Amino acid sequence: MLSVRRFSMYVLRSLRLHLKKIVVTLLAVQLLFITTYVLNGHSLIMDGSWRSFTAPFLQPLTPTTKNHTYPVFDLKSTDSITRLYEKMNFDTSGEWIDTYTLKNDLLTMKMGPDKGRVLDSVDDLRYYNNDPRLIWSVVLDHLLASDSNEYDFSWYDWASFESLNKLIALKDTNVSCQFVCENAFDKDVLESVEKEIQEPLFITNRNKYDEEVWYNRERKMLNSNSVTQIVHDHCKDNDVYYKGAPFELPFIISELYGKMRPEVYDLHAKNHLLYFGATPLSLTVLDSDKEAYRINLKESDSSQSNIVQSKMLQGYIQRHTNEMQNGDLLFNHTLTFEKFLHHKSTEKRKLDIEGLDKTIFSKEYLDLSPSDFHFDAKTKIGELEAKLRSEGLSLHDTRYLQSLKTSIRTAPALQGKYFAEASEVADASADGHHRDKRFLSLGYNLLNDPQEFEARLSSMIRTFQKFTKANGLISWLSHGTLYGYLYNGLKFPWDVDHDLQMPIKHLHYLSQYFNQSLILEDPREGNGRYLLDVGSSITVRTHGNGENNIDARFIDIDSGIYIDITGLSVSSDAARKYMAKFVEEEESSDKDFSTLIEDYNFDENEKFDEVDDCEDFAKYTVYELREWVNSHPDDFDKSEKDLVTKAYKKELVMSKSDSPERDLTPKQRYLLNKKYNLFNCRNKHFSSLSILSPLRNTMFNGVPAFIPNKPITALNNEYVVPPRYGFLTFQGKVYLPELRYWFLFPDVKKFANLQSREPKITRLENPLNDLKFSDINLLLTNIIKCDFHSVFASLFNSLNSTVYRLKELEIQYDPDLSEEEKRSLLKTLRNGGLSKNMKSPEKDPIIYIHERKLWGKVKKILNAANIYNIASQVENKKIEEFVKVSKDLFERNLEEFNILDSDNGKTVIDLNSKGLNLFGDNKKTSNVIFGSDEKY
C-alpha cells in the first residue's frame, strides 16, 4: 500500500504531466458556470472577485464518515454565507456549520508568529483550543478502546483557555507576573503581545485602552508598592516548566486576587484553574434527558495531563489512520457519542440511584410528602460507615460522608461562607457578585454581548433540567425564575441568574451522587459544561449568620454564571407572618396562628433533628454559643467572633419581628413547623406543603420542568403579581402579549415610531395595549429596520416556547373546563406535536461564539451592501414564518395544536378550540387570570 507521502508525490507528478489539460478544463467549467449563473438572474457579490463562483468546483470533497455526510463551509460561497447568517441567528440546534479536522484545524496554527503554519505532528503542539468536537471524540474513543471507565482529567480540555493560549503562543514578548498583577494591563506590553499574536488579547472594552484619561486613572488604582506586594502574595515565575515548554505559561497564579479589571482577572482565574484547580470527582454525561452516565476521573498527585500530554490524542489518530483522506482526519464527535451510547461497556456507566424515580416527568402532577422535607443525618452517617466497613465507599460517598461529619459538628453561627463570588472585580459591568470566583471569564465578548449572556443562561437551565429528569431528581422553579415563566415560559430578560428549589431529601441525593461532578450536556444537543458544587453545611437548615443561604450551585465553567439551588426543609427558623393563613388551612379551623400556638401541647421528648443530629458547638443555641465565646475569648479568632455576633444580632431582630413564632424556643418553632408542614430555605423563604404539592409538569425554556401547585400564591408571598395577563410595564420594560415578549420601552418607542421621529419607518397606529394581528408584521419589519436584529432573533427562536405557554395558560385558566378536562388537555398538549419538536429559545453559547467568529471573517471580505442583502433575504423569510404562526394562533388554526393519531393520521383532538381565547373580542375581561391560583 502506498504511504500518504508517496501517494501525494505520485499525484503531483501526474498533475504536472496533465497540467495543461487541467487548466483548459477548469477554464471551460468556469466559463460555463458563469454563463449559466448570470443567465439565471444571479449577480456577482464579491466586488470584482469572480473566485466565489468557481469555489463550489474547487473546494475539497465533502468529508464523509461511513454514512454521515458533512457540508463544507466556504467563506467565498454565497450559499455558505447565507446559510451561516441563517444558522447564526435562527438555528438553535446543536449542529455545527462546519467540520473539525486534524490538519485544517488542530495542526494549523491560528495565531502567533506561526499563524498559518501546519505542524507535522500533534507532538509539535504547544497549545490548542479545546473544540468540543475534538475533546468528545478523543475521550470517548479512548474509553471505548481501553474498555475503561476512568481517565486522566485536565481542565485544559474542558474549560475555555483561549485567552491563555494567546500567551502560550508568544515567542518573543516577555509576559511576567508584573503584567498580570496590575489593575490594568501595561499598554506597551499589551500592544507587543497583540502584535505578535496578530489579534486582540481580549475584545470586551478593548477600546478603553485607547482613552488616555481612562487608562491613566485605571493605572493609578494601584501604586508600585501595591503591585509588588500582589506579585509577592499571588504570583510566581514558572521557572520549573517554562522556557518554551508546551502548554506552559511563564507565570503561575498561586492565589486569586480579585481587585482587578475583568480582562486582567480573566487571566488570573484561568491560570489558577489550570495549575491549581481541584479535579472534579467525576464526569456526568447526559443522553439528552433520558439517561446519565458516570465517568470516573483518576486521582493523581501529579499535574493534570491534557489529551496530548497523556497521549490519548496520539492513540486516537493511530486507531483511525485508515479514515484519513489527503492526510487529514475528521473528528466526528456525534458519531463517536452514538458508539459510546450503544457500546456494551457503557451500560455499566449508567446511573440508577436507589430511591430516585426516573418516571416522575411522565406524570402531570407529582405529589410531595412531608418526609421529603426531613433528613436524618445521624442515620445516614451510620449507613455509610457500615458500608465503608463491609465493602468500601466510592469517592463520591467518601466525600459526602466527610461533609456530613463536618456539617453536624459546626454551629450555624460559626460557619464561614462557602461560595465565593468575584464581587471584588473592579468593573460593575463584570457583574462579579453573580459570578463564581474560580470561573469568571469574559468569554468571547460576554460583557458587551447580551446574546452570548442569554445563550449561556438558557443552556445552563436547559442542561440542569435535563440532568434532573435523567436522574429522577425533584426540583422546581422559584422566585424570579417562576415569575418570569408565568408570562411566556421564559425567564425575565433582565434576570442574571436562575433560582430553583428542592426538598431536602433530594438535595442530599444531589450532594451524595453529584457534588463536584462536571455535568456534560449531550453533545448532539449542545456543549454545556457545568460544575455541580454543593456547600459543606447542608445539614444546617437555619439562617444562622446568613453567610450560607445558598445550598448548591450549577456553575458554567466558561463564564462563572450559575444557578442558585436551595433546599426546603423543616427548621427552627421562625415562620413568616404570611404563612399564618396556610396553617389555618391545614387546621380547617377558625383559630388564628397565635391561638393555635397557645393551644399546642409541645412534647419536649420529641426528636429535635437540629440538635439531636449535631455534635459539639452545633448543639448550642446562638445565645449559648455567644456566652461560651465571651467566656473563652482566646479559643476563637476575630472572624469567628464576628460570625457569632452577626448571628446573635439576626436572632435579636427575629425576636422583635411580627412572626407568630417569635416568642418560642428554637425547639418549639421546629416542632410547630413540622406539625403544620411549614418549610423554609436558609434565606428564610417559607412555603407549605399545600403551596408546593402536587408539583405541576410544564415546559420552561423549551424543556420539561416542575412548578409549585400554587404558583400565584407562592409569588404573591414575595412579590405583587398583577392579576391581568396583558400589556405590562415594569421599570422601563414592556410586555407585549401579542408577541409574548418583554422589550425595553425606549426600543418599543423607536420601532413602533410612537414619536414619529423615524421618517423611514411606518408608525404604529393602534395603541400598544390593544394590538391587532395586522400590527405584528409592521412591528417585526420595523424591528429589523431599526437594526434590532438580535431582538428579532430572540423573538423568532423563542416562538415554540412562548406559543406553548400561551396555550397552556388558555387551558389552565378556563373557568368552563373541569379539573379532569384540564388535566387531560394539558397531558395532550405536553405529549403533542409542539412539545415533541420544541426548539431551544437560545443558541448553544460555544456554537454561537464559533459562528460569530466565522461571520467576523465574512464581514472582512464582503461589503456592507452585500451583507445587508443577505441578511434581508434571510430575515424577510423568518418574518413571514413568524407572521404565519401568529395568524394561525389568532385564528385558532395552528397546525401543531391539531393532534393526530400516529396510526391513521386522523385528528384525535384539536387544541386550537380548547381553553380561553386570550386574544378574542373579550380579551380585556378574560385576561384577568392571575388574580389567584386556579384549580386545574
UniProtKB/TrEMBL annotation:
Domain LicD/FKTN/FKRP nucleotidyltransferase: 468-719
InterPro entries for this protein: FKTN/MNN4/W02B3.4-1, LicD/FKTN/FKRP_NTP_transf
Chief location of this protein within or outside the cell: membrane
Organism name: Saccharomyces eubayanus (Yeast)
Membrane disposition: Single-pass membrane protein
Short name of one Pfam family: LicD
Keyword Membrane belongs to the record: yes
Lineage per the UniProt record: Eukaryota, Fungi, Dikarya, Ascomycota, Saccharomycotina
Subcellular location: Membrane
Protein name, per record: LicD/FKTN/FKRP nucleotidyltransferase domain-containing protein
